[in-house]
């Protein structure tokens, strides 16, 4: 069994999406899972996890008091909140940072140690080199606002953004001081070796997302159900002295509680 504290993301307990109002009001746009968080928390705890990560929309759907009740009823700790943004468009950056700030305020109020952001928009006419510099500067601002609230900020490279595989990961972390939260499935899907990237960027990693990935047909899976072996990743974490929270994640699964249990059983054997 791994010695790390294990969390699970609540994003699997419903359809993934965002707020339609964000099309015309950037500051109101948030990620969310369209599902019941009380059920998600109870099933995450029943699978043996100690903590939970949630999207900013699901976090802000509840008052701080109501969210504390959800945590108390399940026995889980809020480990991280996840927000996103384009981060490369000057005119809307203040709106995006205002939204991330609301998320950070609530996460800090609830005692979470981590704030995770994803993003870095791909333009319709292609990536510009300056977009990486704009993203890096925006991520430094996220880092600063998180630290001001006692949170540790992390950037999550993600498919469909300008930071996907090893080359763009190396590029962005030369341009920002924010921490790197590797998502093993997204990195593998973009052609990276997650274990190698964990070793290469160990000094920037204090929080990790573990997820399985199947190439054909493309889908995310519980750990060890796809094409990414878990053992080399965990060994890289041990070899580099990683001692932080690990969040297991699965975007969608027919029975989300089963998916959580499968991944926990995999971790128990490693």
Descriptive keywords:
single chain, 270 residues, alpha/beta, 8-stranded parallel sheet, two-stranded antiparallel sheet, globular
Secondary structure: helix percent: 25-40%
Cα-atom Rg, whole angstroms?
17 Å
| Run of helices and strands | EEEHEHHEHEHEHEHHEEEHEH
Number of helical segments with 4 or more residues: 10
Largest sheet: 8 strands, parallel
Spatial shape? globular
Strand content: 15-25%
The parts where pLDDT drops under 50 for at least 5 residues are none
Outline the structure in words.
It is a single chain. The chain is an alpha/beta fold and 270 residues long. It has ten helices and twelve strands. Helix 4 (93-109) runs parallel beside helix 5 and helix 8 (194-200) runs parallel beside helix 9. The radius of gyration is 17 Å and the shape is globular. The model has no long low-confidence stretch (mean pLDDT 96).
Write the layout of secondary structure elements.
Blueprint: E1 6-9, E2 15-18, E3 31-34, H1 37-46, E4 51-55, H2 56-60, H3 64-74, E5 77-85, H4 93-109, E6 114-119, H5 129-147, E7 152-156, H6 166-173, E8 179-180, H7 184-189, H8 194-200, E9 207-210, E10 212-214, E11 219-221, H9 230-239, E12 245-248, H10 256-268
Parallel strand pairs: 1-4, 1-12, 4-5, 5-6, 6-7, 7-8, 9-12
Antiparallel strand pairs: 2-3, 10-11
In a few lines, what is going on in this structure?
The chain contains ten helices and twelve strands. The protein has helices at 37-46, 56-60, 64-74, 93-109, 129-147, 166-173, 184-189, 194-200, 230-239, 256-268; strands at residues 6-9, 15-18, 31-34, 51-55, 77-85, 114-119, 152-156, 179-180, 207-210, 212-214, 219-221, 245-248. An eight-stranded parallel β-sheet has the order 8-7-6-5-4-1-12-9.
């Amino acid at each position: 069994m791994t010695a790390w504290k294990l969390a699970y993301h609540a994003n699997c307990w419903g359809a993934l999406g965002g707020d339609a109002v964000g099309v015309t009001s950037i500051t109101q746009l948030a990620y969310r899972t369209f599902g019941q968080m009380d059920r998600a928390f109870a099933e995450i705890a029943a699978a043996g996890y100690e903590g939970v990560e949630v999207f900013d929309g699901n976090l802000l759907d509840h008052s701080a008091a109501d969210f504390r009740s959800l945590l108390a009823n399940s026995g889980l700790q809020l480990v991280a909140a996840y927000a996103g943004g384009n981060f490369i468009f000057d005119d809307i950056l203040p709106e995006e940072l205002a939204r991330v700030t609301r998320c950070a305020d609530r996460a800090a109020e609830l005692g979470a140690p981590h704030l995770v952001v994803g993003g870095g928009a791909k333009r319709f006419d292609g990536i510009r080199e300056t977009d990486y510099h704009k993203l890096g500067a925006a991520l430094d601002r996220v880092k600063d606002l998180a630290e001001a609230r006692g949170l540790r900020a992390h950037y999550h490279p993600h498919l469909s953004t300008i930071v996907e595989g090893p080359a763009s990961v190396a590029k962005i972390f030369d341009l920002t001081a924010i921490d790197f939260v590797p998502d093993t499935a997204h990195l593998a899907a973009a052609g990276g070796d997650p274990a190698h990237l964990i070793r290469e960027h160990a000094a920037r990693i204090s929080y990790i997302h573990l997820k399985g990935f199947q190439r054909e047909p493309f889908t995310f899976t519980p750990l060890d159900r796809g094409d990414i072996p878990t053992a080399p990743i965990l060994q890289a974490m041990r070899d580099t002295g990683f001692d932080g929270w690990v969040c297991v994640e699965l975007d969608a699964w027919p029975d989300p509680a089963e998916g959580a249990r499968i991944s926990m059983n995999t971790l128990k054997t490693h």
